[in-house]
Amino acid sequence: MMDPSSSSAAVPAAAPAVGDGGGGGGGGPAAAVSSAVATASRRFQHLLDRSTPHVGRRWLAFAGVAAAYALRVWFAGGYYIVTYALGIYILNLLIAFLSPQVDPEVAEVLGEGGAALPTRASDEFRPFVRRLPEFKFWYSIVKAFCIAFVLTFFSVFDVPVFWPILLFYWVVLFTVTMKRQILHMIKYRYVPFSFGKQRYNGKRVASADDLTLPKD
């Protein structure tokens, strides 16, 4: 017969899982850093979203950032390569800001007809859609100035160059690029600005049908 004492042995307790931590610590320092970065990113994006309608204030803040960078370069007396690269990047942003989202020249080559803007009052209204929207243009240029400002604190980027040559080359490049852009505007009849264009205040002009309707 089976010994009764053999069936009364205590069942050993289950061993704690490896990595449990005993108190649910949440993954340690790496998880805490990741959570802090995600929180900071959400708050920063929230501030960007709130600043979207404040066009004047945003560009005023950009003027402050640009002035701070100019003062830094002036007192440092160098970092002309950084400034030249910043100027080239700003020129590329400006061209994208002045260009339509759908290039009429490319559309003609592809046989898609092109998105020509109206040239007569009877034409269909087609608003100008930029390749680079205003907010993204502002954000990119502010970020570029901030990065360039940080680079001025590293001596490895202070390459000795003759800055008048860089300035002359940038002016020539700017002139040629803007001339090409202006000729493109004239050829396809579009203006990337709203100055001088007709605006509608939302008031509806009464029609003949409205005048014949009976009043209560």
UniProtKB/TrEMBL annotation:
- The transmembrane residues are 81-98, 137-155, 161-178
Q: Organism source for this protein?
A: Oryza glaberrima (African rice)
What highest taxon heads this organism's lineage? Answer: Eukaryota
List the keywords (alphabetical): Membrane, Transmembrane, Transmembrane helix
Give the function comment from the record. Answer: Involved in the retrieval of endoplasmic reticulum membrane proteins from the early Golgi compartment.
Q: Family, per the entry?
A: Belongs to the RER1 family.
**Quick check: keyword DNA repair in the entry?**
no
Biological processes annotated in GO? protein retention in ER lumen; retrograde vesicle-mediated transport, Golgi to endoplasmic reticulum
How the protein sits in the membrane? Multi-pass membrane protein
Q: What is this protein called?
A: Protein RER1
- Where in the cell? Membrane
Q: Fetch the Pfam families from UniProt.
A: Rer1
Any one of the GO CC terms: Golgi membrane
